[in-house]
Sequence to fold (1182 residues):
Amino acid sequence: MFIYEKKLQFPVNIRNTNPRLAGIVISQYGGPDGELGASLRYLSQRYSMPWPELKGLLTDIGTEELGHLEMIGAIVHQLTRCLTEEQTRAAGFDAYFVDHTAGVYPTAASGFPWSAGSMQVKGDVLADLAEDMAAEQKARVTYDNILRLSDDPDVNDVIKYLREREIVHYQRFGEGLRLTLDKLDEKNVYAMNPSFP
Amino acid sequence: MFIYEKKLQFPVNIRNTNPRLAGIVISQYGGPDGELGASLRYLSQRYSMPWPELKGLLTDIGTEELGHLEMIGAIVHQLTRCLTEEQTRAAGFDAYFVDHTAGVYPTAASGFPWSAGSMQVKGDVLADLAEDMAAEQKARVTYDNILRLSDDPDVNDVIKYLREREIVHYQRFGEGLRLTLDKLDEKNVYAMNPSFP
Amino acid sequence: MFIYEKKLQFPVNIRNTNPRLAGIVISQYGGPDGELGASLRYLSQRYSMPWPELKGLLTDIGTEELGHLEMIGAIVHQLTRCLTEEQTRAAGFDAYFVDHTAGVYPTAASGFPWSAGSMQVKGDVLADLAEDMAAEQKARVTYDNILRLSDDPDVNDVIKYLREREIVHYQRFGEGLRLTLDKLDEKNVYAMNPSFP
Amino acid sequence: MFIYEKKLQFPVNIRNTNPRLAGIVISQYGGPDGELGASLRYLSQRYSMPWPELKGLLTDIGTEELGHLEMIGAIVHQLTRCLTEEQTRAAGFDAYFVDHTAGVYPTAASGFPWSAGSMQVKGDVLADLAEDMAAEQKARVTYDNILRLSDDPDVNDVIKYLREREIVHYQRFGEGLRLTLDKLDEKNVYAMNPSFP
Amino acid sequence: MFIYEKKLQFPVNIRNTNPRLAGIVISQYGGPDGELGASLRYLSQRYSMPWPELKGLLTDIGTEELGHLEMIGAIVHQLTRCLTEEQTRAAGFDAYFVDHTAGVYPTAASGFPWSAGSMQVKGDVLADLAEDMAAEQKARVTYDNILRLSDDPDVNDVIKYLREREIVHYQRFGEGLRLTLDKLDEKNVYAMNPSFP
Amino acid sequence: MFIYEKKLQFPVNIRNTNPRLAGIVISQYGGPDGELGASLRYLSQRYSMPWPELKGLLTDIGTEELGHLEMIGAIVHQLTRCLTEEQTRAAGFDAYFVDHTAGVYPTAASGFPWSAGSMQVKGDVLADLAEDMAAEQKARVTYDNILRLSDDPDVNDVIKYLREREIVHYQRFGEGLRLTLDKLDEKNVYAMNPSFP
Fold:
């Protein structure tokens, strides 16, 4: 079970209203490579993981990503909480505003609501870890792109922190893969599951 | 942020393998009225809630629903962790098995992957609370239906517990609505937001 | 069965072309809380309603919402029927134009085609009425937001009329809920279906 | 606007409960080539039709299809309204039952909720009429297939009536296409819109 | 099986960077009436076609459409391969950029990822050919609309070529339909499949 | 462009009709980790690849996967081409049959139509190669599962061949990743793109 601690993992203090930037950052809330997909992917995959080390790894990172989801939500909220009437009409935000006002909804920047079709739980330790490593790489690129699109230092400080965490997660999943290969068969260099003849 | 406590909110101990029942119960994991939608709905709506009491209410219930999601995942996992070859071919489970083996994937019983299109964050206190009360009623019916479809007492004990919690949540959201109407205008008997002239 | 009467429930006479506004208003045609979802929700739920009063209520409102869908379509059509070449390229409308020209297609403002995943028919009188009350609240907010985003009085007159109708529908569903609670059990204050022990 | 007449276009009187057949017939309620898509396609396309004859044709057929949608809903309802406990667990219906009990929900037999992505409004008279003719052919095949899968004469009588109507609609859209080609240019034998140079 | 020949069916040489136009043209890559849907529709339908002539027709056109998909991808790529930082922030492209950088992803201009729900394989020769004729008409309109929205001659030359090919395909499917009607029954003027009594 | 060679990459000769198995195998046609997603992923990603070796690698494998898609379609077709009336009603196939008869439609075994949301093109060489390696692992597991669910040797021979090809592709993408790391920076051991400071 989960316990809520009333603070963010890393502080979020955005001073300037910017609905258009909010409409981009939200892709890490409900986009294809965002924090919702990350946390749900890891917290779902752990059930079928064969060893306690991997169950623990996925629980740890999945729980941390829930906290990242909360941070992204805080950025979107703070970028839009004091909208003037004119700002609600900003290009790229009005289509969001009409259906969600200034609420935080799990959608991609494109307007596509988050779908579990963007993640997979394969029930196979090698496939699931490969999926996880790819997910971290893709999330890292999304953060790179937000940094390319944003010039708000208050936002960028948080994004840089989150980007760093994805790199650490990628490393930890890589260690999980090495552990798995050791356990399965050291010679299985191409990571094929030997359990099926 | 969230902290993981390594125990379930209510114990799950399923003795009998039953893939077909797993294929039904999973609708409370990733179906239209399941625990994923519940937790994400409440944890997302809280940002735009106007008062601390409501932010706290949504955070509390949203966090508890994350624990319920974990419990449903545990039921599905325990119903399928010792599948014989013949059981994998069970009608109603083979279509799931081919793509997810015995992993826990956020899908409805129908096979439709969870979509954020099944929930809403409207950024309006009255609409969001009405959405939440409806969500609890719909989740209650899904639990009723699982109890109609299942005769496994190990499963049903957990489902009855979860069903009770939905009733409590419905009550608490009802109290949140009364609080809101009091704050807005006692005479606003039909719950229309007066902020818009 | 349905009979078409060749007039709108409320007149729509838009004088000015405005593709960008059309791209917002269309969310009440095919968006998550729009008139298509409303009419289909009510006309579908009525089959499993337990009493004639409720079947009649849902048929009445569902049929009226079909007329509202037609009115929204008329607004979108009139806002775009005389597009100049330059207007087709307007930000926020070109993405719609390339796939639908100036036709009226059931999509949200975000470009997400309408999905039945945004509505529910639960086959339970209490859950379905709660869903309906939430739907009316959410539609009311969308109309509020259109009024915030639009300064075309020809459009706004119609939107205000439609917004009023949603309030009336919310009241009528509330009366349906009271009738239901009376019939089920006067003490069932938290609206839990007693049919399941 | 639409007026409801309290009778079905063709009587529906199903004597035998058959949830599995209901789970097939529902594809004409919310499946890819069903009556919901048909009515919405025609009622949406009419706005951008260039001549009154075509607007009238689409309004007529679209309104009739609303009545067919109601008939299909009545079949599904009557096939499931007296379910025994055992029948709710029937293979192919339990996945539907858990989320919708015996309500009528707009989904395909596969469990995929109806999506507007399965229809098109192109804003071009030739393309829209070609889409409509294809839609009638596809609906005709679905009815053929229901007749292949069902041996309930009460159901089949209604399905045969509906199948005949699709053939008539196909003919009428063909007449609409001929009218269009006459108006555009008699020599435009390959039905290319000459409005674009 | 397929063999790749390292040249485009028609040359693509775009000189000017234009992310906004790329965001429109991409609808023929992954939009509802684009080349992905076309090729997959025809290559999938051929299995159940009853005669070798039709299998061959669908294989030919399906394979050609794969080459058109490649050409559209080349246009999108060349319009975005030299983006300046400022150009990445262009309205209508930033939402794409955050999730796909300058990669070519199969989405509609609206941001809706391509879905097989936008095509059909009905397993019936008449319905499938009607679907194909409609598909060609709809693709033709999308090309018309790109020409209305674009003033880049490098792009428009290619689009005009592709538009012409759709007209030819429409003719060839029309010939396939005539062949089918001849084989089935010359008097079957309304194109109803006689195989079902 | 692509040239069709009228033979399969590996022969498919299925002797026994088996609609239920067809309903499982089809997940490699249009399921989340199937051959359609594979070919489209690689053929789309190649545009933004930075070096000719990688463009060539993706074109080669993407083209081969088109041939695998064709082989899977041939299996599904041969398993269903001689259906008796009774076989069309087989549990797990009737829901498919009603909408597609015995045609080959790109859907998952669950009935969810293929969606581009199940793949990604990130426009970043490291992320795209990680996605590709994960895709091959997931496809390998699906083939493992088909082998667990099928006892038809005619089918299994083909599936084993296709499974082997996925292993080879995984190796080749691994070589592509090593090439990339060499080119980027030998010390970039955690595969982070150095292009962003």
